[in-house]
Specification:
Blueprint lengths: L3 H20 L11 E3 L3 E3 L3 E4 L2 E5 L5 E5 L2 E5 L9 E5 L5 E5 L8 E2 L10 E4 L5 E4 L4 E2 L19 E2 L2
Antiparallel strand pairs: 1-10, 2-7, 3-4, 4-5, 5-6, 7-8, 8-9, 9-13, 10-11, 11-12
GO molecular function, one term: carbohydrate binding
GO biological process, one term: response to other organism
InterPro entries: Bulb-type_lectin_dom (IPR001480), Bulb-type_lectin_dom_sf (IPR036426)
């Protein structure tokens, strides 16, 4: 059984982290959010944005991270099908799923674990990270201070 104090401390840390990113992101009303909460989806054509960075779920089912409109990372799922969306599961795993519920995910981070309060954050340094316990990142964080780390992504899967 989980220690309630540890669970409350973890929840408080996650809440503080999410609040920090909400507070220090652009207040421009035209700017997209840089946060995707567990259980939420990012549909084709929609993106998470902060500063010069844009994490876009493209219409061709490719999830691409752009810096000033230059691709710096992608899920390598372009053109496999159409009508896809990015979904952050309650267990912290990111999936690219088609509208056909019988088809397996096109891409996944293979990082799902215990159910927790997870959030995908596109950070101001260009790194997209699943927080709760950091379970996945694009590994694209720039050395712009001490806020740079990477998580091993060797488990992520793209369907051939």
């Amino acid at each position: 059984m989980a220690n309630p104090l540890t669970s409350r401390a973890a929840s408080a840390i996650l809440l503080c982290t999410a609040s920090f990113f909400l507070l220090f992101t652009s207040s421009n009303s035209e700017a997209s959010s840089n946060i995707l909460m567990a259980g939420d989806t990012l549909t084709s054509g929609k993106s998470l944005s902060v500063g010069s960075y844009n994490l876009l779920m493209q219409d061709d089912c490719n999830l691409v991270l752009y810096d000033n409109k230059i691709s710096v990372w992608d899920s390598r799922t372009a053109g496999k099908v159409s009508k896809c969306f990015l979904h952050l599961q309650m267990n912290g795993e990111l999936l690219i799923i088609t509208s056909n519920a019988t088809q397996p995910p096109l891409w996944r981070t293979e990082t799902g674990g215990n159910f927790n309060r997870f959030v995908l954050v596109l950070k101001p340094n260009g790194n997209a990270v699943v927080f709760g316990t950091a379970v996945w990142s694009t590994g694209t964080g720039r050395m712009k201070g001490i806020d740079t780390f990477a998580v091993d992504n060797t488990n992520e899967k793209s369907v051939p």
